[in-house]
Design goal:
By secondary structure, the chain is α+β, with helices and mostly antiparallel strands. The chain is about 35% helix and about 15% strand. The protein has helices at about 10-15, 120-130, 135-140, 150-165, 180-185, 190-200, 200-215, 220-230, 235-240, 240-245, 265-280, 290-300, 305-315, and strands at about 5-10, 30, 40, 100-105, 105, 165-170, 170-175, 215, 250-255, 255-260, 285-290, 325, 335-345, 345-355, 355-360, 365-370. The strands form six sheets. Strands 11, 12, 15 and 16 form a four-stranded antiparallel β-sheet that branches.
Length: about 375
């Protein structure tokens, strides 16, 4: 199968991405794993084909900032029990020790939102943990990614300091015990727990809360949301921050917005939402996965990453008995966003394929049932 992808990503789907800092780079320039067995490659800019609008497309329900299609139920308002559980060992009431941010008598970053690509932040955490601590230069040299300039590395380390994943003393940084929780969450694909750890980083928490409350946020609105809570913040940094939520499986790009995808409904509710999405997208008893999956995400307020895991588990546990999932050969995968995976010592950014389910050796592109 060809290793070329049709990519639906925020680079063009959200129009006019700000020019990246050459020292920081972009998430898309990092290594991405081909989910269909091709070797790793660096993703080059590609022509992006926007998702086709369908007359059966599901709109978000009343109570959520989207229009509701007739007969389609919405995800219930999130309660405290439906939110992702914090990772084990998360420090209660974590407070930033401002003295830990001092570097040669200077604050590393006076801004409440330092600049740093999320994968590179994790790569520097992995390097700090792997070498047992070191200076900015030593950590940057030990990082598995491209070597960063000292200023870019300091900004990324600043984010880790503010999250309580590293500490600084006498010009040297070392990883805290919570770095092991990050590594374990990556290994087990538990992005919800990893996201809970980064809730300690106030800008991430503020934007995540706004996404949950509003349902969706445009890239340009991210700056005003953060500035209202944190004071003056950089426009570029603000517009880049939603990528953290996307890479952690808590938000997804839907048309020209970032949509909340942090809800984790019960299995009973999720099977009901699946039925609603199927009825809204099926024709003559058949629904394409590429149409059904985004509809299911809109109704349930899950990301494609979380929704695919749930559907694949439902099929394995026979919780969707009224539907048929027939494998077939397919073409180029259609991708919507990416998530982090692997481990701190082998960090990867993997694309989320939205036009198929993986239920065995061959992918499933269509689902049958009573519409």
């Amino acid at each position: 199968m060809s290793s070329e992808f049709t990519v639906f990503d925020t680079v063009t789907a959200l129009n006019q991405e700000p020019q990246p800092d050459p020292e920081v780079g972009t998430d898309e320039q990092l290594s991405i794993v081909n989910p269909v067995g091709a070797t790793e490659k660096s993703v080059e800019p590609k022509e992006v084909i926007p998702p086709a609008e369908s007359s059966s497309a599901v709109k978000a329900p009343a109570g959520v900032p989207k229009a509701k299609s007739p007969g389609v139920r919405a995800a219930k308002p999130q309660s405290s029990t439906s939110q992702p559980k914090p990772a084990a060992g998360r420090a209660a009431g974590f407070r930033l020790d401002e003295s830990s941010l001092l570097s040669g008598g200077k604050v590393l970053s006076p801004s409440p939102l330092p600049r740093g690509a999320f994968p590179q932040v994790l790569q520097l955490l992995g390097a700090t943990r792997r070498i047992g601590g070191g200076t900015v230069l030593e950590i940057s040299e030990a990082s598995q990614g491209d070597r960063l300039s000292p200023d870019a590395a300091r900004r990324a380390l600043d984010i880790l300091l503010r999250t309580g994943l590293i500490v600084r003393s006498d010009g040297r940084y070392r990883a805290t015990a919570d770095a092991e929780l990050v590594d374990q969450a990556l290994i087990t694909n538990d992005l919800d727990s990893l996201s809970a750890i980064f809730e300690r980083f106030e800008p991430y928490q503020v934007l995540g809360q706004a996404l949950r409350e509003q349902g969706q946020i445009s890239r340009s609105d991210a700056h005003s949301v953060l500035a209202a809570k944190l004071g003056p913040v950089g426009t570029y940094e603000s517009e880049r921050l939603p990528r953290y939520h996307v890479l952690l499986g808590q938000a997804w790009t839907n048309k020209n917005t970032y949509a909340d995808g942090s809800n984790r409904p019960t299995d009973r509710d999720a099977t009901d939402y699946f039925a609603d999405a199927f009825r809204a997208t099926a024709t003559v008893g058949l629904a394409k996965v590429v149409d059904l999956l985004p509809a299911f995400c809109e109704i349930s307020r899950m990301t494609p990453w979380a929704a695919k895991l749930r559907i694949e588990r439902f099929v394995a546990e026979r919780l969707l008995p009224g539907y048929t999932f027939q494998p077939a050969a397919g073409g180029k995968p259609i991708i919507r966003d990416s998530v982090v995976s692997g481990s701190l010592d082998d960090l990867r950014v993997e694309p989320v394929v939205i036009d198929r389910l993986h239920l065995g050796e061959r992918p499933v592109f269509t689902i049958g049932g009573e519409s």
